[in-house]
Amino acid sequence: MLRRPTSLHGSRSALSVVSLLPPACAGRAVRLSCRTAMRTLLLVLFAALPLAAQLTEDQIRAGSADNWVTYGGDYASWRHSPLTQINTGNVHKLVPAWVRQIPDANRLETTPLVYEGVMYVTNTNEVYALDARNGKVIWHFAADWVKRQSQNRGVALWGDRVYFITSDCHLVALNRFNGAVIWDKEFASWEKEGYWSSLAPLAVKGKILVGTAGGGSGQRGFVAALSADTGEEVWRFWTVPAEGDPGSETWGGFPAKWSGAPTWTTGSYDSQLNTIYWPTGNPWPDFYGGRRRGDNLYSDSVVALDADTGKLKWHFQFTPHDEWDWDANETMVLVDREFKGQMRKLLYHADRNGFYYVLDRETGKFLMGRPFINELNWASGLDEVSGRPLEIPDKRPTAGGNRICPSVRGASNWMSPSYHPETGLFYVVTLEKCDIYTSSAQEPVPSTGFRGTGGEQVPAEPGTFYLRALQPNTGELAWEYEMPGPAVMWAGTVSTMGGLIFSGDDDGHLVALDAKTGKDLWHFQMGTDIYASPITYAVDGKQYVMIATATDLFAFALFEEAGR
């Protein structure tokens, strides 16, 4: 029979139970009698929960009305749900169904996963399994040995396991039913090389895909696939070519080891093409490119990789020779749709540089691009054939400072967009803001935090967030919703077949908008910051909308349902 320990902590080899057990069982040493008590107690608790089957690739690919089984909702990263119980006609009746505070949290960025009535949610170096009906803790795992602390954006599910990445670049496989460690593999070194990580991994074809942060200190980026069974590395793709490899000539002799192009946002996957689409970050130093002369491949790009081998099929670079810190880290959304009279496999992307792109994802061919912000002053447009930005002279960082739009935070960022198949619209939270960019020709020193200076807010220009709905094949604006607040926080989106778009605004509200018109239908003040993307799921016939705030998890349901 399956067991669900309530709480697991400790070193890489030691586990301890700390809650829902007799006080004598708390502490780092777990005696046999306490383990017996744990098993007895949790067998009773587990009996009240729905039995969970193994999660398969077919389920992830197809998505599920009731579940949310991968970071983007499905492999195509639509962040869309077919649930309709909550809809435009009754969304005003939403009330909190449950709230769960996460101890020690100060900036939750997690996208929870939900499968068979259990929610899996992360904080820094820890995972919670919760009853998705009420938020009660089923088990809790904390990697409290990790010295590096950074936000974490979620887990991956595969079979009967939960996979999450620690801040110091360990991929940890946990038993989905009790949180026990199955294996723990380091895929990059924090202590020796300064790598760290924050992304949610992606489970594909028996492999767990991981990436790294650290590009702001010069660490060379990569995407790696580890065996879901053993944690052994299957393949690795470096986002900066080694000397002599194709693309290395775009760095002007700058050493690959310290060139950046990190991979800190979760990719998307097309099973028919057997292709993974992974976004890459900025080159290093962020704001000074005098030493790294050239386009700096494959920074600020999407790389299309063979899922079996990791070999590069094609790439598209959004911002060549980036000196603005505009990682291409907004999610790649995959849609099969007619484009100019021809059915094509498309890739939609709203880039941090302020341009919206449509690519043919079979070939990487540029099909269309245009600005999706009102003030974009670093380029006049995109080349109609290649999609390369047509740069405006003197719109790069300078020693004395240069006002450039968009800001360092970008027109978009890692917070997820969504695609609604019924409205046919692409939804993205957008920042209208400019910065004063400065640059320094100082000799770059890796792993010191040197970035070649940066960007500062323009006085009296705080910026404004908008949730924008775009016609995806043209980039034309269908509608926009101006968000209140000081333009500090940033949330993602989720769309539903109930005709709704949910997001968080800068004043701490969860908001529901009409997906067709952008009309504000409902909002709820949660009293804290929001840095995450909402999801929706259903358990026992009841639909919930859920979002993580800085310190808490909020789940909402219809009043008449929640009151039963």
Summarize the structure.
The chain has 564 residues and is mainly β. Helix content is 5%, strand content 35%.
How would you portray this structure in words?
The chain is mostly beta strands and 564 residues long. The chain has one domain (23-562): Quinoprotein alcohol dehydrogenase-like superfamily (Methanol Dehydrogenase, Chain A), CATH 2.140.10. Strand 30 (464-470) and strand 31 form a beta hairpin. It has a five-stranded mixed beta sheet, with no helix packed on it. Strands 2-38-37-36 form a four-stranded antiparallel beta sheet. A four-stranded antiparallel beta sheet has the order 3-4-5-6. 5% of the residues lie in helices and 35% in strands. The protein is globular. The longest helix has 16 residues, at 32-47. The chain has four helices and 38 strands.
User: Per the principal axes of the C-alpha atoms, what is the gross shape?
Assistant: globular
Let me know the CATH homologous superfamily. Quinoprotein alcohol dehydrogenase-like superfamily
Beta-strand segment tally: 38
Average pLDDT, all residues: 89
Instruction: Say what the CATH topology is.
Output: Methanol Dehydrogenase, Chain A
* Low-pLDDT segments: 1-51
Summarize the helices and strands and which ones pair or pack:
Blueprint: H1 32-47, H2 57-62, E1 80-81, E2 94-101, E3 113-115, E4 118-123, E5 126-131, E6 137-142, E7 156-158, E8 161-165, E9 170-175, E10 181-186, H3 190-193, E11 202-204, E12 207-211, E13 222-227, E14 233-238, E15 268-270, E16 275-279, E17 301-306, E18 312-317, E19 333-339, E20 342-350, E21 355-360, E22 366-371, E23 379-382, E24 389-391, E25 402-404, E26 418-420, E27 425-432, E28 435-437, E29 455-457, E30 464-470, E31 477-482, E32 493-496, E33 500-504, E34 509-514, E35 520-525, E36 535-539, E37 542-548, E38 552-558, H4 559-562
Parallel strand pairs: 1-32
Antiparallel strand pairs: 2-38, 3-4, 4-5, 5-6, 7-8, 8-9, 9-10, 11-12, 12-13, 13-14, 15-16, 16-17, 17-18, 19-20, 20-21, 21-22, 23-24, 25-28, 26-27, 27-30, 28-29, 30-31, 32-33, 33-34, 34-35, 36-37, 37-38
